[in-house]
Amino acid sequence: MLDFEKKNEQTNDTATENQPVGTKRLKRELRAEALARIEGAARTQDDFGKVVEIWDKLDANRERKERYHEIGRSDVPLDYEAAEDGVCFPRDLNSFIWKQVQKGEFIDAIYNCPYEIHELVTDEYISNIMNSLSPEQKEILYYIAVKGYSTSKIACIRGQTDRNIRKVRNSLLKHIREKIYDYLTSDKEHNMTAREKLFIENYRNMIDNSK
Hints:
mainly alpha
């Protein structure tokens, strides 16, 4: 019985789709008005149950029609049993560095190395400060600033404790800030940017608060 009703509905839908646009629009408007009257006349629980049943039927028909236009393999989604990201194409191809390489920008890829991290900086004085760091400091700075690794992950990579990495990180950042401050406040000619002026102000406030 249910199969017969479904086939009947599909036949009616097909017949409706083959009708002229004006006729289909008129039928839709008449159905909407009829449904609005049924909703307005509903008073009891059974009445509202019938309204919900009508809406469920309309939703089922809408979803069935939408499925006809979906890109897929019948009732099977297009991504069914699809390979995980990185199986067919390496995950690195989606990284920022490789996107630059694909555009022909090779500088960041060439110097994407802990010991060449100073080449990734455009300001000459900051590049000189970073170049003066020890290999250990460069490696830790690279993992923190470029890779964005946590201190615990860096500790696993280097075979050290998390506490030791945090200690090196704090002393390293303190050293770099001091060098930058010394350069910006020296007698050398330097047209400071708004960001550098803000750095000086924040650094002085930090010194005053630490006293």
